[in-house]
Amino acid sequence: MVGALLIKLDRLGVAVLSGSTSLAATTLLCQVWLSNQQISTIFTLVLSALSIVCFCLGFMWPQISIVITTSFLGSYALVRGVSFFIGSFPAELLIIKVINGKRPKSINS
After folding, report:
1. What is the DSSP secondary structure assignment for residue 89, as one 8-state letter?
2. For residue 33, what pLDDT is reported?
3. Cα separation, 60 vs 1, whole angstroms
4. How does DSSP classify residue 38?
5. Nearest-10 Cα torsion for 89, 33, 65, 23
């Protein structure tokens, strides 16, 4: 039902895609820089604000939003896929531990 509705209302579908991509990007960035549990309100505010802004921008400029959203998702998927097959790329959570000063035994995931 939701998919059929978003196909009929293509601008709304692009806006939802743009907002959800900003959700993923914000989650990834906040995991790296705001990894303390005490900063959860800042995380929620940043997540909400960026998602609303990207939703509105996706609704106003759908073609530009499609290009930016698909390039972000495609590049992330490509890098994660290559890192899975090649190996020895650290995962995001391991990078967070290294940034916070917790040295793991091995940086390879």
Report:
1. P
2. 66
3. 24
4. G
5. 100
Tell me: the pLDDT tens digits for 35-70?
A: 555 566 777 787 788 888 888 888 888 889 889 888
Scan for tokens 């390039």, then name that residue.
71
Give the model's confidence band at 106: pLDDT under 50 very low, under 70 low, under 90 confident, else very high: low
Amino acid at the residue 99: I
Angstrom CA distances, 85 to 71, 78, 89, 107, stand at: 21, 11, 10, 17
Q: What mean pLDDT value characterizes the chain?
A: 77
37 secondary structure, DSSP code: G
| Six token digits for residue 45 | 């505010």
Whether the Cβ atoms of residue 24 and residue 92 lie closer than 8 Å to each other: no
What is the Cα–Cα distance from 80 to 76, expressed in whole angstroms? Answer: 6
As a whole number of angstroms, the distance between CA 21 and CA 31 comes to 15
